[in-house]
Design brief:
Length: about 500
């Protein structure tokens, strides 16, 4: 082995730097930073031995973080390497066992796993791992902090330079990975994430987070349409009071143009809508919401199928619904799934009921089937969002945060731009004590495509880099992205998560 450079003092500096990164306030950043440091230093170390290293984004999708095809040091055999970071030593054994189990199933023809544990391993845990090794169908090599210090000390100047420029290195690599992506990269990642979601589903650990896209196919009025029709109705009401009538066809034309006016931030137009309609506001919203709606869709059907308990398993633990409508409830009722709609403080589902949390308010079409609907806080304006953000102990915030910390959350039909939701995801990442550094949540998002540019290579490169950057942004929130080209793909993905893989 190459000699350790610089002596004990340097080693101690490297150790302290790594420990500071581990304990950084930003968990996701610290994990990404340490992972990058390890890959950079390992590539350099192996290069000095005329050996190669391939990181995940280069050749490996779903097997491990790195592949060492020529081995390391005196070992010339192919080795898969996995990086695991944890802050609490009591979590190390479970993290290691989980990693070993996944590799045993997915290792293919690779017979060696280098598990790089970014912390110090207590002797008691090492002894238990040594016993575990005897039961494995592959060779397990364990590295901890001491081994990382040895590798990093081999080229101290590279370590210092990489550490001091981590942000630039991470950005550069994200862009380069985006450029290097091919047409199948997102599909390979998506397949891996679907399999992971299936595992979590089998473990009764999935919580669905549903946005407007979940109801869109059922022709529920979009947010833009809802706001715009209310806006026009308010003006029409005032004009009528002054004996000025707008014809029906003219109203449609006006609504269309007002939607364009609202742009991406119709909240600006909602500040005075509720006051403008006084007591009949909620009825008017309900009428607009369901005006063209149908009771089900392919997506709602598959959401319902996911929620059907199977062989004593729940599959889906709860639903967080950002929508006002009750279409999820209607579909669950049709499928005979017991549920409990929650839209106010103190409402708790029974153990055999699926909780559906309407955290932005609830306006069921058949309101007579629900009690105390006045408990529902309709998050309809900037004031509503501010209220949620300023009240950390609001039941809606506590419910979301609890599931974000303790479960695997699956976001469907959401743009992921809601400021309160992103804030809660950040808080959850700080509070988690298990699987530090790992993305435990998943979101389905539509790929960004520039129209009429399929043959323009520079634009295609921009799209790939943009996709890579988006993935990186969401990873900092602990969210993996499942990219789709068309919304019609979502029901197929849900079938696969349920366990029907025929659609691959």
């Amino acid at each position: 082995m190459p000699p350790i450079g610089g002596g004990m003092e340097i080693s101690m500096d490297i150790r302290e730097t790594l420990l500071e990164l581990i304990n950084s306030e930003t968990i996701r950043y610290s994990y990404m930073a340490i992972e990058k440091l390890i890959i950079v230093m390992m590539k350099d170390y192996l290069g000095s031995q005329n050996k190669r290293l391939f990181a995940e984004n280069e050749v490996v999708h779903g097997i491990s973080d790195m592949i060492l095809p020529d081995g390391i040091d005196s070992d010339d055999s192919c080795i898969a390497a996995e990086i695991k970071m944890y802050r609490h030593k009591q979590m190390s054994l479970r993290v290691i066992y989980d990693t070993i189990g996944r590799f045993s199933i997915n290792r293919g023809e690779i017979n060696k796993l280098l598990l790089i544990v970014v912390n110090e391993l207590p002797d008691g845990i090492r002894n238990r791992i040594e016993e575990k090794k005897k039961q494995l169908n592959f060779e397990l090599i364990i590295w901890d902090m001491d081994d990382l210090v040895r590798i990093f000390s081999y080229n101290e100047s590279l370590f210092v330079d990489t550490y001091n420029n981590l942000n630039a290195v991470l950005l550069r690599d994200t862009i380069n990975n985006g450029i290097a992506r091919n047409n199948s990269t997102y599909l390979e990642k998506r397949k891996k994430y679907v399999e992971q979601l299936h595992t979590q589903y089998e473990n009764d650990n999935i919580v669905l987070f549903l946005g407007a896209g979940a109801s869109n196919e059922a022709k529920i009025a979009t947010w833009d349409t809802l706001i715009s029709e209310l806006f026009v109705a308010l003006i029409d009401k005032q004009l009528s009071a002054n004996h000025i009538q707008i014809e029906k066809n003219d109203k449609k034309k006006i609504v269309k143009e007002v939607i364009n006016q609202n742009g991406n931030s119709p909240l600006l137009q909602t500040r005075f809508l509720r006051n403008g309609f006084e007591n009949d506001f909620e009825e008017l919203v309900r009428d607009i919401l369901y005006k063209s709606a149908v009771d089900t869709s392919d997506l709602l059907e598959e959401i319902g199928q996911l929620c059907i308990p199977n062989r004593g398993k729940l599959g889906v633990r709860a639903i967080i619904n950002y929508n006002f409508d009750d279409l999820v409830e209607k579909n669950l009722k049709r499928l005979r799934v017991k549920y409990h709609s929650i839209y106010g403080e103190g409402m708790i589902p029974d153990t055999d009921e699926l909780g559906i949390y309407h955290v932005h308010g609830f306006l069921p079409q058949e309101k007579e089937n629900y009690e105390n609907l006045t408990k529902s806080l309709l998050v309809f304006s900037e004031e509503g969002y501010h209220k949620l953000m300023l009240e950390p102990y609001n039941w809606a915030n506590i419910s979301q945060l609890n599931y974000m910390i303790n479960n695997t959350c699956f976001f469907i039909g959401l743009s992921m731009t809601d400021p309160n939701m992103r804030r809660l995801l950040e808080i959850a990442a700080q509070k988690r004590t298990e699987n530090d550094g790992e993305c435990q949540h998943y979101a389905i998002m539509r790929r960004f495509k520039i129209k009429d540019s399929e043959e323009v290579e520079s634009i295609k490169s921009f799209e790939r880099v943009n996709e890579s950057l988006q993935e990186s942004f969401f990873k900092e929130l602990g969210v993996n992205v499942l990219w789709i080209d068309e919304f019609s793909e979502i029901p197929i993905l849900l079938k696969q998560i349920k366990g029907n893989y025929d659609s691959y």
